[in-house]
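Hypothesis: this fold can be encoded by more than one sequence.
Test: take the structure tokens below, design a sequence, compare later.
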């Protein structure tokens, strides 16, 4: 069905990125299970600058001679960093790897007026793309989600970003309690009017060990039923497509050429160095492709870096099977789909033609004219099942 497979370099250049994790937030959102921490004393940012730079040096020793295509400052709330701290972090990256002239440098920000005031400083430091966590465009839901900004404040932050950066994006969460298709449609139209090139639109999920999980288990948090959730997903696709912001990944929408290049490194199974508390990385070392996990607790991480030059607490050499599974899990999130020849190069085996045929007949996947396998709009809501079926 897929024709004769030709050899493909398993680590062909899907890009090299550096992810830096700033682990602190002003408050912990009740739905969030990211590695974020609230500290009631002022954080000594110089300590973290020094530790970031030491850990970068170690990562560069593991993955030398790379050209950095993308940098992403995530968290936590990276917009709590001083612009001088951001500049020092970017200088540290440039001191350990070659940085591409057109590097994409994204910083995640909360849309509060205080943090928006720093946007000019971030731009001068080298940031050229801002990603704002707005999450809702009505004040009742913002409060329920634990956000500290209002809709007006968020929209002012978007306007500030637009005046400083050529590229910016913001996130919204949908399938929230009591949300209707009509109310979400109105909110989405409002977002699109203010989005220059990119939106991230996530369905609310209940994560373990969060306050929302406790409320949901106790029956005090009621989410839209399966039928309504599917309607919300479908209307999201329809409205964004109509306004020239088609989906390029299951939760991300952009004008052509405006995709988040850093996240594309993940989804295309490129290499990335993870730096900072709780960061993860995938690097091709002399031993082969490896997965790295960094100590989550900020203070322990500082101790480990001071002692060892890094905070790595887990390092796993990925088997061929694991590489194939990760490649499917990440790549099938993309509307462009995957190249089955690269799956074979990574995993050492071919995908099962019979399983592919069954999924095509069920209209869950399709084969493009270039021979790529991609998930259909029908298949995306059951993506995990599709991936599991192909990986079996």
């Amino acid at each position: 069905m897929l024709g004769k497979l030709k050899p493909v370099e398993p680590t062909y250049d899907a890009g090299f990125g550096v992810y830096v994790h700033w682990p602190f937030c002003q408050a912990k959102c009740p739905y969030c299970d990211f590695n974020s921490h609230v500290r009631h004393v002022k954080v000594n940012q110089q300590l973290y600058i020094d530790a970031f730079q030491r850990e970068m040096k170690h990562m560069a020793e593991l993955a030398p001679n790379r050209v950095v295509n993308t940098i992403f400052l995530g968290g936590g709330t990276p917009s709590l960093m001083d612009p001088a701290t951001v500049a020092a972090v970017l200088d540290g990256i440039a001191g350990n790897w070659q940085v591409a002239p057109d590097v994409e440098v994204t910083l995640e920000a909360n849309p509060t007026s205080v943090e928006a005031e720093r946007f000019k400083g971030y731009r001068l430091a080298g940031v050229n793309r801002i990603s704002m966590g707005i999450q809702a465009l009505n004040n009742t839901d913002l409060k329920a989600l634990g956000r500290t900004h209002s809709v007006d404040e968020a929209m002012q932050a978007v306007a500030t970003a637009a005046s400083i950066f050529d590229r910016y994006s913001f996130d919204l969460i949908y399938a929230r309690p009591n949300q209707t298709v009509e109310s979400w449609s109105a909110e989405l139209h409002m977002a699109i009017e203010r989005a220059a090139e990119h939106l991230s639109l996530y369905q609310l999920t209940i994560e373990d060990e969060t306050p929302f999980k406790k409320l949901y288990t106790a029956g005090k948090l009621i989410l839209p039923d399966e039928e309504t959730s599917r309607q919300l997903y479908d209307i999201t696709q329809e409205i964004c497509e109509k306004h020239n912001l088609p989906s390029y990944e299951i939760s991300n929408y952009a004008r052509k050429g405006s995709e988040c290049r850093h996240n594309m490194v993940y989804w295309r199974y490129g290499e990335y160095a993870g730096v900072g508390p709780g960061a993860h990385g995938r690097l091709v070392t002399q031993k082969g492709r490896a997965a790295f996990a960094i100590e989550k607790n900020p203070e322990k991480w500082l101790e480990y870096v001071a002692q060892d030059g890094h905070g790595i607490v887990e390092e796993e050499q990925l088997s061929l099977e694991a590489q194939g599974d990760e490649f499917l899990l990440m790549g099938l999130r993309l509307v462009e789909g995957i190249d089955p020849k690269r799956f074979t190069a990574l995993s050492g085996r071919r995908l099962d033609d019979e399983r592919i045929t069954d999924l095509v007949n069920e209209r869950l996947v399709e084969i493009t004219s270039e021979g790529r396998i991609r998930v259909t709009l029908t298949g995306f809501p059951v993506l995990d099942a599709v991936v599991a079926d192909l990986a079996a």
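The longest strand covers residues 98-109. The CA atoms of residues 300 and 371 lie 48 Å apart.
Hypothesis status: open.
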